Amino acid sequence: MSDSAALAVQLHGGPLDGQTVLVDLDAEPWTEVTSSHGGRSLYAPDEAGVWRWVRDIPWEAM
User: Fold this and answer.
1) β-bridge partners, 45
2) Contact between 46 and 28 (Cβ < 8 Å)
3) How far is 1 from 45, CA to CA, in rounded Å?
4) What is the mean pLDDT of the segment spanning 16-37?
């Protein structure tokens, strides 16, 4: 992410609710965040630009 623009966004819902992460603005319109429950949590912006939990991806599925 060092060569591209990033934005700090607050996550809503799911296991990472309330956390703030950096999102690469030049990448896909979603982000995967490693979570402490094992695996990754997928978040994407809704129509209003709020980053909401979509689903979890278990380690074995990656």
Assistant:
1) 51
2) no
3) 19
4) 81
